[in-house]
Amino acid sequence: MYDIIIIGAGPAGMSASIYARRNNKKTLCLEANSYGGQIINTLDIENYPVEEHISGFDFATKLYNQAKNLGTEFKFERVEKIIDNKDYKEVITSKNTYKTKSIIIAVGAKNKNLGIKKENDFIGKGISYCATCDGAFYKGKEVGVVGSGNTAVEDAIYLSNIANKVYIIIRKDKFSADDKNIKELLSKTNIEVVYNSNVVSLNGDTCLESIDIKNNDGNISRIEVSGLFIAIGRTPETQMFKGLIDMDDYGYIISDETTHTNIDGIFVSGDARTKSLRQLVTATSDGAIGASEAINYVNKN
């Protein structure tokens, strides 16, 4: 019987495990893939306090080693189901069943990608899914944004204050963002909207140099950009919890800053929960809060 089982070994999950072990709770961290989550794809982190420059892989490895040295048990197994037995929970994986007094869900969310050649190769070399994370690398350069929703529009506005020029490429003839955001975007003199178009090719040898876009008439044109920010949505990896834990229409687990879910003893930290800002620093913060709440729950019960 574990005190706390953490599902997910990204920054939120591993931060939670550090706080759990420092409170002497028997802790298991389950991860379907490798430790680190999405952050391991980031070449250079510049916006995390204390560390001015560190790669996502190095950051995740430091966090993993810290958690492991404190006594966190790691198992790399895919979680398939949670059973709530009130006084204890069962976590069923592809290999085993584990019993625990509390659970912290920290599975994160994955970015939707364009699904075209070189996209994965250029991540961190021109391709980004986070303007606030990577926008500063493109100061004075020309960049593109893909997407028509609020995130894409807000990213384009944000980048217009950093980059020389911003192209925003949308599939239809109108945005799906809020009117206020659209109005602000259209007021920016260095933002150009490319309507009725899709990105069909990413060009460059070792890094992104240009993109090819195809409009509804089938015409293909080339735009030279140093960076392309893809903002076509994210998918939280919460499918296995449906029917047990309350979620919003997009699959994010409903919770406020306390990280409590609708099930006593089950908490959610990081990008999988409903929140306004999904950043590395908020993920580690969530992990600390989730662990604190789980510790209090275990102590009371």
Task: Provide a descriptive summary of the structure in words.
It is a single chain. With 301 residues, the chain is an alpha/beta fold. The chain has 2 domains: 176 residues, FAD/NAD(P)-binding domain (3-Layer(bba) Sandwich); 118 residues, FAD/NAD(P)-binding domain. Helices cover 23% and strands 27% of the residues. It is built from 6 helices and 17 strands. The radius of gyration is 21 Å and the shape is elongated. 42% of the residues are buried.
List the helices and strands and how they pair.
Elements: E1 2-7, H1 11-22, E2 27-30, H2 56-69, E3 73-75, E4 79-84, E5 89-93, E6 97-105, E7 109-111, E8 127-128, H3 131-134, E9 142-146, H4 150-160, E10 165-169, H5 179-186, E11 191-194, E12 197-203, E13 210-215, E14 220-224, E15 227-230, E16 234-236, E17 266-268, H6 280-300
Parallel strand pairs: 1-2, 1-6, 2-3, 6-17, 8-15, 9-10, 9-15, 10-11
Antiparallel strand pairs: 4-5, 5-6, 7-16, 12-13, 13-14
What is the gist of this entry?
The chain is α/β, with parallel strands linked by helices and 301 residues long.
Global shape? elongated
- What is the name of the CATH class of the largest domain? Alpha Beta
Q: What is the arithmetic mean of pLDDT?
A: 94
- Compute the separation of the termini in Å: 14 Å
Q: Residue share in helices? A: 10-25%
CATH superfamily of the largest domain: FAD/NAD(P)-binding domain
H/E element sequence: EHEHEEEEEEHEHEHEEEEEEEH
